[in-house]
Amino acid sequence: MRSPIPGLGRVMVLLTAALASASLAVSEGWEEEGVQYGQVGTDVTLSCTGARDGSPVQWRRAGAAALPEGSAICDGALVLPHTSLATAGTYSCHGEDGSLLHTMSLQLGHLPGVPFVSCRASDYENFSCSWTSSVETFLPTRYITTYRKKSLSGEEKRRNKNGHGGPCLQNPSRPGTCTVHGSEFWSSYRLNITEVNPLGSSYRLLDITMQAIIKPDPPEGLVVEPIPLAPRRLHVSWKYPSSWPKEPHFQLRFRLQYRPVIHRSWSVVETVNLSEVITDAFTGLEHVVQVSAKDFLDAGNWSEWSAEVRATPVRDPATTMRDETTTFAALESLAEEPSQAANPEPINRSDPLEKTAVLVSLGIFAFFVLAAVLVITVLIWLRVRKHVKDETKPHNFLVAATHLKVLPS
């Protein structure tokens, strides 16, 4: 017998598959009156609640009779094949007389992906983890966050049959983060971050060692001050971050970086103290200073750099006084003898220290020249003396030989 509706057989197959997918799509806890969820790319079926069996119904989208391409009505249900994000919207079914029977909001999206997770401990008693979704699902999403301690001792296993664990507490004011309080610095933990939406769930397991993820907050209260009568020095002081507990067996060490504002390269100094004196600053130049912290035993990572603080070393008092004296004398001269024309004599802008340096350089140069001349003279004298000796030796030998020859036999 031929079906009165064209393609009814194909529609029935689609309807069966759609009903199966719909039963899986609406997971527990996501049921909401008047809302249906579906997965992009699959076939979705919308049921007309309130319609009598066998009675004809009409379907509309956003109040209009136009429906997505390929949709079909089967036994009062609307079948939407191969849905896309554009298929989502508000659908309504009506009786034969046009009366409204049911309204439904269709939301379409994707299954959750495995979330990206990273963890950090700002102290040795707690650690926090943050995550982001790896897939844009376009659907409401929530996260289940739990942890358990690894490598339990025999006593701990007897006391805690399910292991030492619990929820990683989420803070509504900081979405995408959770915190484990009262953790142990020398222990390891396994974290489970599960992403859930109306279509399903996906999770990430992460093994955490406290020593590896420790990263203090930046030091606080950074102060940089010039030192009087010390034109190349700056005094720098700071405090422990307030999040780091004050315990004698968990200390921090620090890294100080500084540079003149007009330069790009940093100078770096490491210290265990809460203050440091920069001894090679540039006189009269503004400097920028930052400090970071790390566990004293080198566990984990350096903190972020603190906020920049700027300061300028004092100027050299002698140079400052000389400059002020020169300026005052010049102003006095201009006030007493105002010039009406340009002075033809050249202005001597040389510095007394410059002259002294030039004279010292010339003296050193003259000394080296004199020493070189003296060395050359001594070498020439030694060479001449040696040559004279060499000429004398054969002559004496001939005299001796002649003397022996005239002796009586």
UniProtKB/TrEMBL annotation:
The UniProt annotation puts the region (Disordered) at 150-175
**What cellular-component terms does GO give this entry?**
membrane
TM stretches of this protein: 357-382
The main location is membrane
Where does the UniProt annotation locate this protein?
Membrane
Membrane topology term reads: Single-pass type I membrane protein
Its name, as the record gives it, is: Interleukin-11 receptor subunit alpha
- The source organism is Mesitornis unicolor
